[in-house]
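Troubleshooting entry. The earlier prediction with iron/sulfur cluster gave an output that would not parse, so I re-checked the input for stray whitespace and re-submitted. Clean input:
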Amino acid sequence: MDRGWLNESACRGLDPAIFYPLTDEDAEEAKSICGVCPVRDACLEHAIGHREHNGVWGGATERERQRIIRRRRRLRALAASGSATVGAGEAAGAVGH
Ligand code: SF4
């Protein structure tokens, strides 16, 4: 996978420890940086695609990424069954912090 997006990241050169908080409650500093990052979507998709289990990626903690994955699975299942109209924002699993 192309990781060229890392060159544009808002966290480039920052202390990586910021993005590996001990608890979700300590993730606010990382999330605020991610909030202004121009490659946030690519970062989130990378983390989801590679099953990153630690840290804040794309503005989402591991718990939040799991929530996004579960939501996407539910929406895919609904779309496959033809019983729902899926909005673009929902299908993308927007983080929305
Ligand atoms: S979204 Fe956050 S963790 Fe990902 S590249 Fe941007 S600043 Fe770094």
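This one parsed fine. Residues 91-97 have pLDDT under 50 and may be disordered.
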